[in-house]
């Protein structure tokens, strides 16, 4: 004979009072409420910060009832993209006086020129011509690089670790044909701004 499932027992007044007194942090309330509204989750975090509060205190902080909060549905995260073993890039170095190059412009002027050059390159201007006219490195500014842990396949291929860090960080993140900029940074890009295009 099949047994019919019994209906869930209603919580007692004592249990309801205990639940009303229960304090949780923001993540605890987001999980307990099962909200799938990212805006509500942000509001909960903003309203209580690192405090632990009761449901009533949370509703008061939010200025709303949470009776109809809907369950959490987490968006699937995409796996990290694998970097290529080898790349070929062309770059424009926009440098400034005192950065170890022959450039004489100010740092401020270099920053402005680098931003303008990146925009021109992304709008489709001939990259090779921009290199020829603007770079503070040797023309044509083309480099072949192998990634960390990969041995060079030719004498003209550089190891990633042999370049300034920002150069490889940008270059290996680009798709073929992609263009981006490594901003000046004393530690990772000490010579100025590198506008980089991945060729292969």
Would you write up a description of this structure?
By secondary structure, the protein is α+β, with helices and mostly antiparallel strands. The protein has two domains: 14-62, no CATH class; 86-198, Roll (Chitinase A, domain 3). The chain contains seven helices and five strands, in the order H-H-H-H-E-H-H-E-E-H-E-E. It has helices at residues 13-21, 26-33, 38-48, 55-62, 107-122, 127-134, 165-171; strands at 86-94, 142-146, 157-159, 179-182, 193-198. The chain has a five-stranded mixed sheet, with helices on both faces. Helix 2 (26-33) packs antiparallel against helix 3 (38-48). The protein is elongated. The relative contact order is 0.14.
Number of helices: 7
Termini gap: 71 Å
Major sheet size, sense and barrel closure: 5 strands, mixed
* Average pLDDT: 81
Identify the CATH architecture of the largest domain.
Answer: Roll
Which strand order does the major sheet show? 3-2-1-5-4
Could you tell me the radius of gyration in angstroms?
Answer: 28 Å
User: Which spans of ≥5 residues are poorly predicted at pLDDT below 50?
Assistant: 70-75
- What class do helices, strands and sheet pairing give? alpha+beta
The total beta strand count reads: 5
The tally of domains stands at 2
CATH topology of the largest domain: Chitinase A, domain 3
Shape: elongated
The top level CATH class name of the largest domain: Alpha Beta
């Amino acid at each position: 004979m099949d047994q019919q499932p019994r209906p869930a027992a209603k919580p007692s007044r004592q249990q309801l009072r205990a639940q009303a007194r229960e304090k949780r942090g923001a993540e605890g309330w987001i999980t307990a409420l099962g909200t799938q509204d990212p805006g509500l989750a942000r509001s909960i975090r903003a309203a209580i910060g690192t405090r632990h509060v009761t449901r009533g205190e949370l509703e008061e902080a939010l200025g709303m009832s949470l009776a109809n909060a809907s369950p959490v549905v987490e968006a699937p995260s995409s796996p990290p993209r694998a970097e290529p073993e080898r790349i070929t890039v062309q770059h424009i170095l926009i440098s400034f006086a005192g950065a170890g190059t022959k450039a004489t412009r100010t740092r401020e002027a270099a920053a402005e020129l680098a931003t303008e050059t990146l925009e021109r390159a992304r709008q489709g201007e001939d990259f090779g011509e921009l290199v020829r006219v603007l770079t503070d490195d040797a023309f044509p500014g083309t480099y072949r690089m192998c990634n960390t842990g990969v041995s060079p396949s030719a004498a003209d291929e550089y190891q990633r670790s042999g370049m300034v860090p920002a150069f490889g960080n940008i270059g290996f993140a680009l798709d073929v044909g992609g263009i981006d900029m490594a901003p000046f940074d004393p530690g990772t890009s000490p010579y100025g701004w590198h506008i980089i295009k991945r060729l292969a």
